[in-house]
Every structure is written in C-alpha cells, then in structure tokens.
Amino acid sequence: MITSFEQQDVRINDKLTNNFAKQLERLGCDDLARELGATKRTPRKCSAVNLLVSFMAMISHGRCSYNIWAMFLSQLIDDTISKKAIEKRVNHLLVQLAKGLLEAALKVHHEKIVDPVLFSGFKRVLLHDATHLGLPKYMSHVFPGSKNGHGESAVAKIQAVFEMLTGNFIDIHLGSFRDTDLVDASRANQDVRKDDLVIRDLGYLSLISLDEIISKGASFVNQIRSNWIISRECNGHRIDMLKELTKHKSLDIDVFLGAKNTIKCRLVSVKLGEKAAAERRRKAKMNAHKNRQPSKEKLKLLGYDIFITDVPREKWSSEKVVQVYANRWYIEILFKAWKNGMGIEKDIPNNYLDKDRVELYLYMRMLQIVLLIMPLYHITSRLAFAKGRQISIVSVTKYIIDHICITTLIDSLPKHIERILYYCSYEHRKDRTNHIERLITGSS
C-alpha cells in the first residue's frame, strides 16, 4: 500500500515530463530504440521515451532503485508497472540507446561562449580533457582503477571533446581509469578536420598524435614536458631548458621535437607567480612516491608554463598563446559542475551491481547535462555578462538539481532569472579574478 506521502513523492510534474519527452522525441528516441532492438515495435505498456523520462525523473529525485523507477513510470503512464518488468529492459541495448541519444544531443547547436576574434581563422576549437569518477569497489572488474594498499579500486574515466565556438560537446567516451590518454588522443584525432585547433594537456602529448593533427591541416596548442628532446636546429644539440629559462625568464623560439627532429613548432614559456609555483611544487612533492621525490631541477622547472604550438607569430603573440591555453579552464569547470554540482561521483547507487546499470546511469546523467543544464547555463551567462557579471556553472547546476522540475524551470525562466543571476553569480573580488573572468577578459 503506497502512502499519500509516497504518492506525492513520485508525482511527476506534467511540464517536466512533457518537455523532456519532447526533447527525446526530437532526438528520435523511439525510432532509435526500434533500430537498436531496445524496444518492441509496438510496446504494450510504455515506449522508450516514457522509460527514459521516468528514469530521468528518478535520478533527479535522488533515490535510485527498480522499485522507485517503477513507481515513477506507473505514475507517468497511469498504469501499474512491476520492477521486474523494468529490470528486464535494462541491458546493453538500453545503454546503447542512451549513448546514441547523447551523441545526437551533442550535435545540437548552442551559444558561443568565447570571443571568436581570438580564434579567427579556425573553424572549430577542440578542448580535449578527461575526468575520473570513483565507483563502488565491487565494480573494479568492469571499471578497474589503480591498485593501492586497500586492493583494487573502481574508477570510470570520461573523455570529452568540447567545441569552444559553439559551446558543444562533440564527443564523450566512457572508459576506465586504465584507458590511457595517449590512446584516446589517436581515437579523437580521427574526427579532427582541416582548420581545427586542438588544445590538450600533457597526458595526450606524443609525436604521433601531433603528426596526425598536422597531417589533417589542423593546428595545436599543447603543454610539453621539460624532459622532452627539444632542439633549436634540425639535428642540433638538445636544449638545456632550465638554463634557457633561467637566462631569459620567458621564451618564444622555433624548435624541433623528438630525437629525429620530426616536428617543427614554436616553444613558448612564461614564469609563474611565486604562489602558483609554490603550490605546484607542493603538489608534486605530495603526489610523488616517498623514494622518488622530484629533483631540484624539476622543482625549479615547475615554476614555468611551457607550451608548444604551430600557430605562427603573425597570428598569435606569446601572450596570446598563454591566453588561448587558459581556455582549458572551461572544460575543467564543466567537469567540476558534473562532480560537485550534480554529485555524479557521490550519487552512483551502491546497489548498481553490473556494468549496464552503471553505464546507463552515467550516460543519462550526461544527457541531463547536455539537454537541461548547458542550455540554461548559456542563457543565464549571456544575460549576466551583459550586466558585467559572470555565472558559476556549479551554482547553476546545483540550483537546477535543487529544483527537481528542471525543464519546468526552463519554461518559466523569466520568473527565475533574477534569482539565478543573484544566487549563481561569482562573487566579485578585487584582489583576484575568477576563472570565467580570465576566459572572457584574457587576464592572468
């Protein structure tokens, strides 16, 4: 017997279900489900749209179980559905449906989030980065993490490529902690096109990956390790990086990379402030093995940011190179919103015992971000910027999650906009700028 409180707890707002259902319909949810075999051609009780709408309502509600899901679905279609009936539908085909919908949603055009003048001449600006999500330990056979003193751990790894000029994710790939960034760089390079700009960090750096980008007529900006073989001239002597940096403080020189001098590009370096350098050195010591502490030379080199790019000086000064690379903060802020704002890492249910359930949960959470959170963030960011303010995506995410009727919030945006601008804006600080201000103004 369901109590009145439970009935109220599972009641779904009509605007919420109708709006999200319409979004799934526009993405071709039922057609894709039939194509994949994830649903019967003529479902007797519920369509794929209803199944996923009720799942989204459940995870927004914060309690995940087949029983709760069945109650939400029963309320939605005004019929009684057993948890066993839902359990039978949760398999790799439903996971493929959620993944396919996410890929379709990624193609939807959003608002520009950067000044295109900085990136003039590039058709796309691709930020490639990854984030890790801790999972219950018993999932280590599916999403293996690192081995530690407590045995095996379970960690999922989300690789994402974000296109800055449109504000779109163009690729999201779910794997495990042990899937290397180098392998994913080659996978993502298959989608790189002429006149693209690819921005990545150290983990994705290899001569093979850079050569793949260049061969497609695209450009790159990348951090580089100081221990790479770098020469000033083809077949020349290796640069003593610390000596060069100590002598010149900053650099903007032409170099050749690798032992065979296969790639010619610019090397740009800047000296960090004392606080930033000290923090970087502190983290390096903390993360190092007790018997493998960083050398004095490495600690000194941590006081510099070192970049490589094949974009010519006529287009970008060394200051512009640094400003462009700073745009990586944006995708890191998005990851922060996923983990801190939505609580994805903390909210993965402990009773999700198999790969299909975990992957379905993660793909639906990411679909929620792309369809519901990002559009609202773009709208409020544009309105806030016109007033000289910047919106925190973490605060916006929490605001949306706290208001469970998410798409209802978007429908009634005029009523909520002042609250969002007031509660979700970055606090203005005279002593420092926040990350979004750095992206917009180019300040350091």
TrEMBL record:
It comes from the Bacteria. GO terms for biological process: DNA transposition. InterPro entries: RNaseH-like_sf (IPR012337), Transpos_IS4 (IPR047952), Transposase_11 (IPR002559). Residues 121-367 form the Transposase IS4-like domain. SUPFAM superfamilies: Ribonuclease H-like. GO terms for molecular function: DNA binding; transposase activity. The keyword Disulfide bond does not apply. Keywords: DNA recombination, DNA-binding, Transposition. Belongs to the transposase 11 family. This is IS4 family transposase.
